[in-house]
Amino acid sequence: PMEDLDNLVNGWLKYAADMGSRWARVRHNGYRDLTSDTECYACVNPAHAWERIKRILTFQYDTGYAPRTFIDGIIKDNNFADNTVWLASAVGTIIKELGNKELLFEEVPFNNGTVATVYEHIRRSVDFLFNFQGLYGLIKIWGGDWNDCVNYAGLKGKGVSVWLSIAWCYANKRFRELAKMLGKDEDVKLSEERGKIMAERIEEYGRDKEAGYYIYARTDDDIVMGSHECDEGQIFLISQLWSVFAGLENAAEAMDKAEEILETPIGIRLAYPAYSYQRSYIGSMAEKEPGVQDNGGIYLHPSAWKLAVDSMLHRPDRVEEGIKKMLPANHEYGETCGEPYAMYNSYFAPETGYRMGTPGQSWRTASSSWMLKSMVEYVFGMHAEMEGLRIEPCLPLSWKECSIKKVFRGCTYNVSFTGNGEGSDVLSVKVNGELIDGNIVPAKEGETLTVEVSLGKK
Length: 458
Fold this sequence. Notes:
By secondary structure, the protein is of the alpha+beta class. Helix content is 37%, strand content 18%.
């Protein structure tokens, strides 16, 4: 029912994901940018995404670590810790889209010329980060993590990123899926043991128990970032979001707290309160004006993650609100601006004055790719599984009728949804007029399936 959203998904988002998958972010080839954008691109072109992810793997070190960037084929490594954490999810997503676990045995070189299977590349990426431990056995932040503007916190090699430790738990979970596919029982067992260890460390040393949410980082000198006891930067959104992806035990509470503190009329902040002066342990984040981009701005890449997270938590009201706040031409909650066909990296937050609601930068952003993935895979519920397409949406309750067409393993699915406005749970699924058990629809190559989904509250 939202024409602007239709135009965005069917036009700009697919184009931007394709571009980002091979050319992120214009001035250089960011390793994690390429990896994540390729994962998102897989929902529309998984075969192409597979060829691209194999190219990306060729720049990985044989230790499992991955560089920050490369330009003209030459590696430029800025000591960022998170680059390799994105690989397991990207490869796992593409494998499920294609439905072919044998692809994991394809051999791909590392950047020194030695060769290993794709599976081995992923195993080493997970191993590397688990052993890249700093304070309290959490994962080092080093020269930065996803928030690459926190680039002073771990330069001595002791500081840790709680967010990255949480993200590792998710990557480890995705790796475990691959290991199970191939019958790698020892890897599955080790993954389960390590996952439990890291989750316990996060709960003990990475959670602000009094405030009810996860902290962001601990610096080389064990200064906590993202706690209610900080004068500024008391909470960071990304730790709360990824606690849901990782399946941590206090994730739902953490998200409730994040919304309570970080939500604004034009979207959810990345952090709050914004930093108003520099500290020796922060970095370029604190050199930006309060409310600008990652310094407390409305960062749309995490906003797109939040659409996925709200879908996982079955919160259709928050999904609808999040979509409307992200769209530049929708002013139901607050005034934003920008080209209506594009997606931005951020909107400037209320404290920026006349710049409030204006874009931080235009198309050179992962916001586009992740909004595509979040809309297709999570909001519309087109979840690729080895058994078929699992349909588990979290659609806004006001959308009484909507539809999506997805080509999956050579099969065209024309999926229509009908809701009664009471809930977004799947009540029934019909395929070519026949009621089926459950919500997984196997692909039939070369055929077109008419899928009717009835939604409500169970």
